Amino acid sequence: MNPKERRALWKVIGASSAGTLIEWYDFFIFGALATIISNQFFPKENETTAFLSTLAVFATGFIIRPLGAIVFGWVGDVVGRKVSFLLTLLLMGGSTFAIGLLPTYESWGVWATVLLVVLRLVQGLAIGGEYGGAAIYVAEHSPDGKRGFYTSFIQTTASIGLFASLGVIMVTRNVLGDAVFDDWGWRVPFLLSIVLVLLSYYIRIRMSESPLFAKAKSEGRLVKNPLKESFVRPENRRLVILSLFGAIMGQGVIWYTGQFYAMFFLQKVAGIDFTTTNHIIAFALLIGTPFYVFFGSLSDRIGRKPIILGGCLIAGLLYLPIYQGMMYFANPLNVPMLVVLVFTQIVLATMVYGPMAAFLVELFPTRIRYTSMSLPYHIGNGVFGGLVPFISSMLVAKTGNIYAGIAYPITIALLTALIGFLCLRETRQGSFAD
Fold first, then answer.
1. Residue 37 and residue 99: Cα distance in Å, rounded?
2. Is 387 helix (H, G, I), strand (E, B) or coil?
3. CA proximity to 186, closest of 110, 99, 62, 91
4. How far is CA 59 from the centre of its chain?
5. What are 267-283's pLDDT values in tens digits?
6. What is the 3-state secondary structure of 3-72?
7. pLDDT tens digit string along 142-178?
8. Distance (Å, rounded) from C-alpha 287 to C-alpha 185?
């Protein structure tokens, strides 16, 4: 790759990552403010019920993501990568801004809750189309042998988006004060997103189409029905199923355990206050995020499969002692050790997520890549992963055992490692299939 091509590639990565980061910021504000949203959109008589109801609404955004993957996967494979992720950006930005304007339960009763659910569903549809488009767009500009490295920058955007949401929340809370923030200041992080979305749209609208997609289109190799070819043809359907249960399912659970369930565990189980918890998570994210690039680059040398599945296996073995350690260092409070324990979980997330974009785009041919990789990705992350906070918190509430919640991620992580080791093939060596 000559210097001009390298500069062009970094522009592609920068434009794709900026938009994806903003979409993750929008998507994760809801989760970061779950404890406050529960008081704004549900009856306050039962705090536990209100919090679990908020997590259920949070989960709807994840459950709907596979539908977004189907809709925008079709757009991406038939119309173009660029069109698809311009649409998702506008949908995400508009719905996030609207959440910041919603009346509360106290003002509108159940209708406020209904509107919240609707907007959360729109967020889920949008993120269902965004990730696949950005990952594919970067991958289809990347050279063979460096695809893990270059696509890993897209992988950082989810954690950076969460970090950004926590940062905006903490700054807003410090400026307005706790009482004002809990009353109406929580709206500010939602409303601010519209500025970032419009800026990102301006950047993206000036981008050209992916060269591999443009070549396939000019040669007449696009398919009219990517859904049929992706999920009806036996050989491709098998790849979709194996990628879900042998890689993405575990990756989704590990990512959401280390960054969201850890947050809720510290707040609701360990009893650590909102601000301190956000500081712990934010600092762990800050020092852990570069490992996405490390493991993405490492996968170019030793393969995607051993890193992804090794992360699943290690997570399944370490979660119980990690969460026992979190309880031990919560009382008396030892912030540095809690940062270390959350950081460890984030490193595990970077192992399974850093090489994932390269693995998925290499698994499927260009003509159906967007549809084929997006659906299993968003089932694994949106359903298996996105339900971690709700399922784990519910298990704790139902059993009274503070460690019952991690039974779910442990089981999924170990099952993924087993299926992946037995059934998945390595994708690192080959060029893209047409």
1. 11
2. coil
3. 99
4. 12
5. 989 999 988 998 999 99
6. HHHHHHHHHHHHHHHHHHHHHHHHHHHHHHCHHHHHHHHCCCCCHHHHHHHHHHHHHHHHHCHHHHHHHH
7. 888 899 999 999 989 888 888 888 899 999 999 999 9
8. 28
Half-sphere exposure for 144 (CA within 13 Å, toward CB): 7
* Cβ proximity of 312 and 275 under 8 Å: no
Per-residue burial over 409-424, b = 16 or more CB atoms within 10 Å of its CB, e = otherwise? bbebbbbbbbbbeeeb
- What whole-number distance in Å separates Cα of residue 127 and Cα of residue 276? 29
How is residue 324 written in tokens?
Answer: 């026992």
Helix segments in 219-334, DSSP class H: 226-231, 234-243, 249-256, 262-264, 274-288, 291-302, 304-330
Q: Fill in the amino acid letter for 384.
A: F
Which pair of tokens denotes residue 430?
A: 């080959």
Neighbouring CB atoms inside 10 A of 183's CB total 15
Neighbour count for residue 94 (Cβ, 10 Å): 17
Locate 134 and state its tokens.
Answer: 């950005």
The CATH code that applies to domain 3-423 is 1.20.1250.20
Domain ranges, ordered by start, for the chain:
3-423
CA–CA separation, 209 and 344 (whole Å): 38
Closest by CA to 163, choosing from 66, 253, 285, is 285
- Which residue in this structure is represented by tokens 């270390």? 340
Instruction: Say what the pLDDT of residue 31 is.
Output: 80
pLDDT tens figures, 291-320: 999 999 999 999 999 999 999 999 999 999
